[in-house]
Design a protein that fits this description.
Helix 7 links the parallel strand 6 and strand 7. By secondary structure, the protein is of the alpha/beta class. Bound molecules: 1,3-dihydroxyacetonephosphate. The site of 1,3-dihydroxyacetonephosphate (13P) has 14 residues, from strand 8.
Length: about 240
Amino acid sequence: MKKYIVGNWKMNASQSFVQRWAKTFSELFVPLEGQECIVCPPLPYIACLSASLPDAVRVGAQNVCEAPDGAFTGEVSARMLKDCDVDHVIIGHSERRSIYGESNELIASKVVAAQKEGLTVILCIGETLEQRDDVEKVLASQLDHSIPEGIVLDKLIIAYEPVWAIGTGQVASLEDIEKSHKFITDYVMKKFQVRLPLLYGGSVKPGNAADILNCDGVDGVLVGGASLDPQDFHKIYSASV
Ligand code: 13P
């Protein structure tokens, strides 16, 4: 299985940041066999970032509306993303779940909308600090309820992001990552008879990326803070070989 190195800039950037980031990253970037590099900036910068990066670096979105079009002020549809040459979208990030109250059911309808337009979904799941004693129950419930009926499995990537490890510098131990990844992989295999790409996210940095990427069952990383530094993000991209 190939490795996915995905950057999630969250709500950070400016026009000049995008230009500087793209210039530095493009100078460093050499496509590596068996690896996919995807960067997800805030929506207004998708076109500008996409135009400034080599074709091998894909630009993705951080969210999508569950509806196809119409009176949904402030929302962006999957068709619009596709029209802007986006082919990956993050759905169900813990910040969407906790800050914007997105339920598993809403997330499942966003997955349907995205896949209807041919987008590949990076579906985030993960337990909060309070749920740490019940990790498997939480993950199973998120998998059961965020993945809709009729899912297109070859356009689905799962990202396991323990919420307590996001932006805290507190990375999960390699044993915990392997344990949760094995649980998710087995659960998905039992349910869908397929091995889906499974990424880890939560305080991934250049210094720990190689160890994480070498864990059993880790097919890539979803990187927040460290993806804002093009040199750090490139180090993470290169750490996977
Ligand atoms: P950090 O890498 O900043 O912990 O963020 C992880 C994340 O939320 C990626 O989606």
